[in-house]
From TrEMBL:
InterPro entries: NAD(P)-bd_dom_sf, SDR_fam. One of its GO terms (molecular function) is oxidoreductase activity. It comes from Hyaloscypha bicolor E. It comes from the Eukaryota. PANTHER family: NAD(P)-BINDING ROSSMANN-FOLD SUPERFAMILY PROTEIN, RETINOL DEHYDROGENASE. This is Short-chain dehydrogenase/reductase-like protein. The keyword Cell cycle does not apply. Pfam families: adh_short (PF00106). The keyword Oxidoreductase applies.
Amino acid sequence: MNTNQPFFPTFKSQERRTALQIIQDEGLVGKLANKVFVVTSCSNGIGIETARALSATGATLFLTVQNVKTSQEALKDILEPGRVELVQLDLASLASVRAAAANILNRTSVLNVLVCNAGIMATSCGTTVYGFELQFGTSHLGHFLLFELLKSIMLSSSTPSFHSRVIAVSSTGRRFEGINFGNEDFKSNPKEYTPRGAYSQSKTANIYMTKEIERRYGSRGLHGGSLTPGGIFAGIGKHTLGEAQADWPKNEVLMEAKLSIEQGAALTVWASIGHEWEGKGGFYLEKLQRAPLHPDPTDGEYLPFIPGYAPHAFDQEKAGRLWTNSLKMVGLENSE
């Protein structure tokens, strides 16, 4: 692997800011008491640090978790009845998504920001209870349905000074390949399945969803943006094949690129509340900036922390096609 290529990332101090530092730098400590956020998967990893930083704004937070009891312990320092509360949600279950959305709608008529943080990575071949490939069904379809069910209050909550935002946490892993439209119902085929390919598809779908949100609703004050948090060795990697995961600490490139969890949550927070992105959408962020087009490595190797997006990530025709298919898959064909 050639690490001396001119496009290999350098890590400057501003790229190492923590999520809480972003809140402080934006001057928003205690300043968003009238705003409401929903953040998915807040029981571990960058979800916890995203929640802690956003809590410092004074906003009302609904934090989704799979296991409420264990998550209460992990988040005990910020939980506050009536302001920072947990919502049970299993994104792999469309029934659970519907129940969680109903729970949120019973508690609030306002929603300014939806952070689609949850995801799973490189799992063995499997499906959701509805038969969809597990990574696609969890990381994309669960979030897609959640957005559709909360969309109306997000549109009505948008104001001239603070437009509503949907932020999706993608990954550099989406550069491997795009959406496989040869499998229109996105079911798992064990003969063709690869953990990396399925992960890439799910992370490309995150970008496509926010691109379509921007195209469909940006003019109405509801915007969509996506990002990659950077190199973080957190809970999402638990399914990665053991041998490859064991080699990570031996790789100087990966260790140089590694961010702390607090730093990894910074980009999600910046996209969610940063003044830079007010009234804007359709962006893909990386290393605290808008990502450039990703150049092809000359040695043919995948360099995961070289910044940039692959051309397929901004294919509007495919984004629209996935949106139409997703509506059918979650049973909302007639949704506008």
